[in-house]
Design a protein that fits this description.
9 helices, 183 residues, mainly alpha, globular, transferase, Globin/Proto, Globin-like, EC 2.7.13.3, heme binding
Length: 183
């Protein structure tokens, strides 16, 4: 399934509507400055796992690049623009994860750190009904985020299984093939 079609299904399934997108966009000035702090917590959490530590810190400069990429990803969550380009970028993130050996079992629990810190900031910074809409909107977009990345991982796995029967290697191989095909 292409990214745009999947995105439309996910928006429908999560109930993310225009007023949620507007709420997220209005939160960008409040939340974007937190991106470096949340990136630090995210990679600190991932780095506690020996397998992820090797992936993240095994290549010089990788984790520093990832901090910047994470900050851009986090800010885009609050852009309010969830279109074909957005979906393609998220699918690409999943493929890049798969290519280097990062699996959903690594990313999904770490995404919990992102949610926890974001929701705590909402509770501290917002008042009244605005906190409820912020939480509802953020939870919906995070569900979309995780589903897009997981679907790209599954696509990489399916492609890789055509080339190798080693399941742990298949997603990496499939991701390379799909990323090369997309240019």
């Amino acid at each position: 399934m292409d990214a745009q079609t999947l995105l439309q299904k996910l928006l429908s399934r999560t109930g993310l509507q225009q007023h949620h997108a507007e709420a997220l966009r209005s939160l960008e000035p409040l939340m974007a400055p937190l991106a470096p702090e949340i990136a630090l917590a995210f990679y600190d959490y991932l780095g506690r796992d020996p397998e992820m530590h090797e992936i993240l810190w095994g290549t010089p400069g990788r984790v520093e690049r990832l901090y910047r990429s994470f900050a851009a990803w986090y800010r885009e969550i609050f852009s309010g623009v969830y279109d074909a380009g957005y979906a393609a970028r998220r699918m690409r993130i999943g493929l890049v994860h798969a290519r280097v050996g990062v699996r959903p079992e690594h990313v999904l629990p770490a995404a919990g750190i992102v949610q926890e810190l974001t929701l705590e900031h909402f509770r501290q910074a917002l008042r009244g009904s605005e906190v409820f809409l912020a939480i509802e909107s953020f939870e919906k977009i995070m569900a979309v985020e995780m589903a897009l990345m997981e679907e790209s991982y599954l696509q990489a796995l399916a492609e890789g299984l055509k080339l190798t029967q080693e399941v742990r290697e298949a997603a990496m191989v499939g991701a390379r093939v799909l990323l090369e095909a997309k240019g």
